[in-house]
Amino acid sequence: MLDYKFIKDNLEAVKKNIENRNMTADADKVVELYDKRTALVTKQQELQQKRNENAKAMKQKLDDAKRQELIAAGKEIKDQIAVIDKEVAETEEALEEAARQIPNMVHPDAPVGKLDTENLEVKKVGTPRKFDFEPKDHVQIAEELDLLDFDRGTKVSGPKFYYLKNDAVFLEQALIQYALNTLRKHGFELFITPDVAREEVLKGIGFNPRGNESNVYAIEEEGTCLVATAEITLGGYHSGEILDKAKLPLLYGGLSHCFRREAGAAGQFSKGLYRVHQFDKVEMFVYSTPEQSDELHAKLREIEEEIFTGLGIPFHVVDTCTGDLGAPAYRKWDLEAWMPGRNGGEYGEVTSTSNCTDYQARRLNIKYKDDDGKNKYVHTLNGTAIAVGRAMLAILENYQNEDGSVTIPEVLVPLCGFDKIVPKKTK
User: Fold this and answer.
1) Which pLDDT tens digit goes with each residue over 312-323?
2) pLDDT at 67
3) Active site residue 349
């Protein structure tokens, strides 16, 4: 969340930022509650001082009348403190709740817009393949090659679940290994993270654990949720800690299952592997000082570009507009791969990387001790190394052949153990 005093001192800019992000939040209410809390805390401190003075006076040599007078005064002060303590606690809770609705500020270079169609293309890599036959979408390819079974996934688990089969199992594992090897080369410390996190960690990262708009699966009566990304578990890893500045930045890579309700997601661009309830992903997460975060954000994007350049998938990079940013993100780049089976050929998101500045760290109370001896909030960044389903989608569609086979990208062949997936009838 944003610093309360920052919101007060930059109220008009904060309100303009909310408008540009196409979000609903009440910055005036935050300032009102902040001022109320300040006044209450001042009164609370005054009463505590009176209590201390009363207690000090009680230690003096007193006649009985004076002692009874001080006892009565002490009881009255105690009652007043109990009332003010309750009011401070209620005001602080309301203030935090209101402040959590305020999104992070936005990088001055981020394009202003409401829809993803207003994202700004900043780079293009590769040329979409021109097929000399009618290309299929990945669902048709996978079904014909017996790689996916959505029907039985729906029968057993519900819509948007699936079984991954045969050579696709090895392709998935190869993609994961390829991403992990890339991160290891870049000095990342690697994890396999839990699939469950406490609700307070999700809130700290910026996910809404409950309600109709929640995108996560809450575990009833446990106060926990299935994770939607390893960003949650890697971000919660150092919650409540003070980090050693000399060790920053911390570069973490996490492999996890990801579970998303995808409430309201529908339409032709949600078909097949593009939007499902469960998938595997290798996520990058960084803790840094404020001075390091812009450069590290560029590094995460370069790693994502390296991964998809290595796969030989054409893609472009877009600077995400204000209305398409999640609340914690200060700036976000999306990498969108060319998908021949998407509406006759279009780009679709496969990775993203965000600089969240100190927005998540304030919620999760993650600090470092600076050279001036003061504890300051770290900056946090995240980025997708591989979201396996979408990467596989892009491979199946871009590497399909007229005979129904799919060629494996060269970098994955040693990890898969084969260079082509072919129809069973020709094996």
Assistant:
1) 999 999 999 999
2) 84
3) yes
The kind and range of the H/E element at 125 are strand 120-125
The secondary structure of 51-81 as a DSSP string is HHHHHHHHTS---HHHHHHHHHHHHHHHHHH
Residue pair 285/380 in contact by the 8 Å Cβ criterion: yes
Nearest CA among 150, 159, 261, 132 for reference residue 207: 261
- Whether 67 is a known active-site residue: answer no
Tens-digit pLDDT profile for residues 36-86: 999 999 999 999 999 999 888 888 888 888 888 888 999 999 999 999 999
pTM for the model: 0.91
> For the purposes of burial, counting CB atoms within 10 Å of the CB of 415, is it exposed (0-12), middle (13-18) or buried (19 or more)?
middle
Three-class DSSP category at 400: strand
Catalytic residue among 172, 199, 349, 397: 349
Cis peptide before 249 (omega within 30 of 0): yes
How far is it, in rounded angstroms, from Cα 314 to Cα 136? Answer: 17
Active site residue 198: no
CA distance 316 to 353: 14
Residues 138-148, mean pLDDT to the nearest whole number: 96
Strands 242-243 and 367-369: parallel
